[in-house]
Amino acid sequence: MTWEELNKKAVELFQQGSYAQAMQAGEEAVVAAESEFGADDPRLARSLNNLAEMYRARADYSRAEPLWRRALEIREAALGKYHPDVAVSLNNLAGAAFEQGRCDVAERLLDRALRILEKTLGRDHPDVATTLDNIAALYRAQGKIPGTVPLYRRALTIRENALGPDHPEVGLTLNALAGLYYSESRYADAEPLYRRALQVAEKNFGPHHLHVASSLNSLAATLTGLGRFQEAEPLLLRAQQIIETNLGEKHPEAAAGLENVAEFYDGIDKPEEAAKFRKKAAEILAGRGP
User: Fold this and answer.
1) What is the mean pLDDT for each group of 10 consecutive residues in the chain (290 residues)?
2) Cys-Cys crosslink for 201: which of 64, 82, 211, 286, Cβ 3.0 to 4.6 Å?
3) 156-171 burial by CB neighbour count: b if 16+ within 10 A, else e?
4) CA–CA separation, 142 and 130 (whole Å)
């Protein structure tokens, strides 16, 4: 197989969930790239990056980080320190640092990535919005809430202008900003954002997709926080139906959804309804089915 075929195979297997086979193909792609193109070629960096992502999915950072660092060194030498691909490597390294709690390292890497992207692609490019979202998530984890909102707002404006108001990436930022407001108990601010995110999900994925179920649950939780229980209830039940239709009635996610509905009924003083849903959840987890 050629390098290009191995690279494509690795990505496809990974997307299908065949992780062991994907990693084998990814390792073969690295060897093929180095053999065909040399140790300093950007195509080798691409394969190193793909393989690192596979290790990251398994939280194996000790193997992922050296691959990302080598990819970064190759890209800096071959493309220059201010190339968008260098920013991609910086974002990847920052993500790994963030997931390991090394927030100071992640912040420095993301700041550098942002400067590169703004300089090379312009301040209003969608890739800039992605990095702004990453910095906002980092700030949020550090409790820097006042600095987080403007980042999400700027990312949202960039994506709406560049991609259109109904693009899936717009939905990502809407959900992120709404989630921030929800965590601060700012339910009135979160509600319109979650409603828009739901509309975006339905338009892009259809009314029965799992992304729609997630949006329904988020909106229902917000309405519950506002005390609008009658509006929240049908959204929760619709979300549960979507989960069961997509994953099956005995799936662990279905059990988690049932428990979520049970907690809602507990909160509005309907213990009999809560018990019914909680019993079904327990039966799924016990392996007996409904």
Assistant:
1) 90 89 94 94 94 91 93 96 95 92 95 98 97 95 92 97 97 96 96 98 96 97 97 97 94 95 96 95 77
2) 211
3) bebbbebeeeebebbb
4) 19
Angle at which helices 187-205 and 210-225 cross, to 10°? 160
Nearest to 210 by CA among 250, 176, 244: 244
> What is the Cα–Cα distance from 42 to 50, expressed in whole angstroms?
13
Nearest CA to 284 out of 262, 261, 252, 259 is that of: 252
Residue with tokens 């550090």: 142
CA distance 200 to 246: 19
- In whole angstroms, what is the distance from residue 97 CA to residue 108 CA? 10
Under 8 Å between Cβ of 44 and 34: yes
Look up residue 209 and give its DSSP letter. S
Strand, helix or coil at 81?
A: coil
Picking from 250, 218, 217, the residue whose alpha carbon sits closest to that of residue 236 is 217
**Residue whose pair of structure tokens reads 């739901």 in the numeric block:** 198
DSSP, collapsed to helix, strand or coil, labels residue 270 as coil
For the chain, report the end-to-end CA distance as a whole number of angstroms: 48
Distance CA 59, CA 143 (A): 24
Token code pair at residue 73 = 């060194």
Angle, helices 252-267/210-225, rounded to nearest 10 degrees = 20
Of 126, 152, 127, residue with least CA distance to 139: 152
- What is the 3-state secondary structure of 142-171? CCCHHHHHHHHHHHHHHHHHHHCCCCHHHH
Say what the pLDDT of residue 200 is: 97
